[in-house]
Amino acid sequence: MSDIGGTAAPLLAARDLAKAHGRTRALDGASADLAAGEILAVTGTSGSGKSTLLHCLAGIVRPDEGTVTYAGERLDELPEKRLSELRRTEFGVVFQFGQLIPELTAVDNVGLPLLLAGAGRAEARQRAGEWLERFGVRGQAELRPGALSGGQAQRVALARALVTGPRIVFADEPTGALDSLASEQVMTALVGTARESGAAVVLITHDAQVAAYADREIRLTDGTVARAGVTA
Ligand SMILES: Nc1ncnc2c1ncn2[C@@H]1O[C@H](COP(=O)(O)OP(=O)(O)OP(=O)(O)O)[C@@H](O)[C@H]1O
Ligand SMILES: [Mg+2]
Questions:
Q1: Which residues line ligand 1 (CB under 6 A)?
Q2: CB 68 within 8 Å of CB 76
Q3: Residue 104, SS3 per DSSP
Q4: Most C-beta atoms within 10 A of its C-beta, which of 16, 27, 41, 185?
């Protein structure tokens, strides 16, 4: 159940976001709410502003206009230092194009956020290995990203986003390079982890079967939220 329309304040709330890339208005008055523990699918055609919305929600990109409030803090106004701390401790992000560190092996990519949070190397490697296992890529632990398939890299990126136990996971097309069986496996692992830990998820997808894992779906059209509803 979402809190929308209820009394509890949403964990994350975006209001009337606008963001231009040069002359392109990627976001044009987009609003969205995310309740604690809620899984929200964001759908829409290519170029409709999904990735831009996710970047604004996660405090990676500052909107030109509008507000983003996370647990009472205005992300759109926070100084960069506090933003990067939040991204490190409270958020996990899976970018549309992976963005694993090419020089590090899969297990070290996943362990990196733990090292940044102060864990020792052995502990980081062990916990990273468990997350790789969960996403079915433990066998690839010692490979660098260049040696991984697209789908394997996406699983490693998901493991890296979840390893620190974030309150919100932002995932941009996390199954975009996977066939339908692998998509199901990855979504089962992602949703299972989120339900277990109480993490909320913002999930961008163009795949209706993937969106069906969400509690609710919003659809972007030309940078604005066209339709809000509950998924089947
Ligand atoms: N860095 C950028 N520079 C210039 N234009 C950009 C940039 N990023 C996005 N855009 C433009 O902004 C619009 C929205 O892009 P965005 O990446 O948010 O769409 P999307 O819905 O994620 O698309 P896709 O489904 O193809 O990933 C598009 O017209 C895109 O070309
Ligand atoms: Mg995108």
A1: 21-22, 24, 26, 44, 46-52, 96
A2: yes
A3: coil
A4: 27
Alpha-carbon distance of 17 to 28, in angstroms, equals 6
Q: Is the dihedral of CA 4, 9, 59, 95 positive or negative?
A: negative
pLDDT digits (tens, 9 = 90+) for 35-51: 999 999 999 999 999 99
DSSP E strands in 132-190: the ranges are 168-172
Cα 43 from Cα 151, distance rounded (Å): 20
How remote is the CA of residue 172 from the centroid of ligand 2, in Å? 7
Chain position carrying tokens 């991204």: 87
> What pTM does this model have?
0.91
Taking only the tens place, the pLDDT of each residue in 156-199 is: 999 999 999 999 999 999 998 889 988 998 999 999 999 999 99
Mutate to test the pocket of ligand 1, among 51, 55, 95, 173 (most ligand atoms within 8 A of CB): 51
